[in-house]
Each structure stands twice: as C-alpha cells, then as structure tokens.
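hi! just following up on the protien thing from before. the input was this:
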Amino acid sequence: MVERKPYRDLKGFLIEKFGCRVHKVPLDAGLTCPNRDGTLGYGGCIYCNELGSGTGAWDRRIPLREQLLRGVDFLKRRYGAEKFIAYFQSFTNTYGKPDLLKSLYDEVLDHPDVVGISVGTRPDCIDDQLLALLQSYTRTHSVWIEYGLQSANDYTLRLINRGHFSHEFLRAVEISRGRGFHIVAHIIIGLPGEGRADVIKTARFLTDVGVDGVKIHLLYIQKGNELYRMFKKGDYKPLELDEYVGLVCDFLEHLSPQIVIHRLTGDAHMGRLIAPEWSEDKQKVISSIVNELKSRKTYQGIYCGRY
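and the predicted 3d structure came back as:
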C-alpha cells in the first residue's frame, strides 16, 4: 500500500484524473513580459533572469514543435510517462496578439499523446478574449492557467518589483472561474522581509480565493539580477533549509486540503545557482517537508476554518 502524503500531491491528482502517468513538457514560445519590455518596467522582478524561469530553448532556435517532441521522448524514456500536458512556461504566455497565441497553442495540441495545455502568465495579462480562446480548448483538452501571485502582501509585491498587486490576481481568478480551467497560483517563500505571518496570510488568501492548485517556489539566487546584487551587498540572506521547511509547513497547514500542490520547491537552471546550495538536493527538501509535517502531526489544511 502506498503511504498517503500529508498534502494533496500532483502525481496522485493526475493519475486520478487521467488514469495513467502524465507529465508536463516545458515549452519556450519566445514570448516576453510587460515587466521587461518597458510596458510596465524593465528587468522584471528582482529574482527574474533572461530565461524567464524557462528553458531558453527559443533562444537556442529550437522550434516549438521540436521542443514538444524532445520532451515527450525524454519523459517516456525517463519516467514511463504515457500522456502529456504542454506547458507554456517561459515568461508571460498570454502576452501577445490572440492570433499569434492561437497558432502557438494549436501547434502543440494536435499531438495524440497531449491531453492538456498549461499556460503560465501574469494576472494583469489576461482578458475575456484570451480566456475565451483558452476556453475553446476545454472541449478536447484539459486546460490549466497558472497565475504568478508570489505573495498576497502588496508591500512585498512592490518591493520585488512585481508590477501588479493582489487585487489584480483576485480579478484574474474571478474572470477565469467557471470556464472549465484548473487555476494554479505560484507563490514564493523566502521573499525579502517576509516571515511566518506573511506566509500564512498568503495561504489563507488563496484558500479564500478558491484556486485549484498551488506551486510553491523557493527564492534562490542566480547571477545577473537585482536579487543577486542585493545578496552581494548583504541586503538579502537566503533561507536555511530548516527555515524553508518550517515555512512551507506553516503555509500548507493553513491552505485548503482541496488545493492540489503542484510543487514544494524550485530549482535553478543548471550551473546558475549562487545560493542556497542546499536547494540542489530537491528530494531532500521534499522529504524534509514531509517529515516535518509528520513530526508536527499535522497535514495540509489542518488549521483551515480556525480563523
């Protein structure tokens, strides 16, 4: 018997939904971000780099279709995956003209083993026309929309140069709801100035908003961005492993048990990590979180409804 996890994990959710092993194929469509091209600002969030949390495949001139085929082949061989979700990961994947976006989405959705599409974007880069386009795919595919929130604290969003505030995230979720989407929020633990109370506030905010999934990221440092410069000047100190584990558990304890946990940590691109070094051992981080929840005798959502 497989031991039940103290949180609602993505692997179990996917098997329950599709009846087989499903993996996401990360894609880089060559899009950018309004917080980098001058529409809102330049340089992006303080932690962002020139790859936009993606693969950099577009800059290496790998066509979108080829990215998908390579990813499918690798995931079949490495993990025995049977079906796939095309994940538009890099930068802001609703930031473009609808005709262009439709051509990009269509290019990967005609693969027979692709059962869904996941579109990573910002809450201020969505409107009814784009949502209608995404909704049109729900007739044949599972459609996920992933909104970067990072924190429910507006002072933090201003500090990290996010370029939007929590009310814009709330609006994006509200106009996305009822369209057949799986709505995912991205949050970051370890943001400058944030502690336990801030993390719990974000968990309660997402519970109240009613998202379907959450991706938890660690704030790590890579060369070439504002966070790296802050780190070099001594203005930012990354979390230790036990601090991160404790905050993730605090977050989970106050998050609805119905929300699917898409990830518990994040990892930098190979060769780019500056700190913290412990983040490179992803499995150790995940097992430490599970063990801490067991040690506390708690689980995801244990404190929901107690405030």
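The chain has a mean pLDDT of 94.
Residues 21 and 81 are 5 Å apart (CA to CA).
cheers
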